[in-house]
Write a structure and sequence with these properties.
Elements (H helix, E strand, L loop, with lengths): L1 H12 L11 H11 L3 H19 L4 H22 L6 H23 L7 H10 L1 H39 L1
């Protein structure tokens, strides 16, 4: 139940005032991959959150939207990968997820808009211009990943401690 509450909170954060790209969606994608056992639901959750919030916020070029959705799907995959390891890998994977998001979405922006020439200098300029946004995304991803994973692990620890305490009384 707590996991779904965390996801709801993440959805709400898309509507709160925030610096550009400082949202919880990257953390939700990683969290879904790690904590949700049904892989189909794990992949769909961040995409549904994005789609529903985009219905309200507004859609934009479908190429760019697709790159954003693809990026978050890859972050879900990172969560699935670390599930077999340990939750403490969440923060390093969050950084990797931010880098994946940055590389894919900036490439799409360069490729599908007329802001930059379609050459190596244009691509480089696009990535350089995206640095302020990736900084915010990195901070947001680390912040929300830390909060979500910590709350979930604390809830699990408290639940196990309560079960142990009740079994000790018997």
């Amino acid at each position: 139940m707590l996991n779904y509450l965390i996801i709801l909170i993440g959805f709400i954060t898309r509507f709160l005032p925030h610096p550009a790209n400082f949202t919880a969606i990257g953390a939700i994608a990683l969290f879904s991959g790690y904590y949700i056992n049904n892989k189909r639901i794990a992949f769909l959750l961040p995409l549904i959150i994005m789609f529903l919030s985009d219905l309200i916020i507004g859609f934009y070029d479908w190429h760019l939207l697709l790159s954003v959705y693809l990026s978050f799907s890859l972050v879900v995959l990172l969560g699935i990968i670390i599930k077999k390891k340990r939750w403490f890998l969440a923060l390093p994977m969050s950084i990797i997820g931010t880098i994946i998001f940055f590389l894919i979405t900036n490439w799409a922006f360069w490729q599908f808009t007329n802001f930059y020439p379609l050459n190596i200098e244009g691509l480089f300029s696009c990535y350089v211009a995206g640095i302020p946004f990736v900084k915010n995304a990195l901070l947001g991803d680390l912040f929300y990943t830390f909060i979500f994973f910590s709350l979930s692990e604390l809830a699990t620890f408290a639940s196990l401690a309560k079960k142990k305490a009740s079994s000790d009384l018997e």
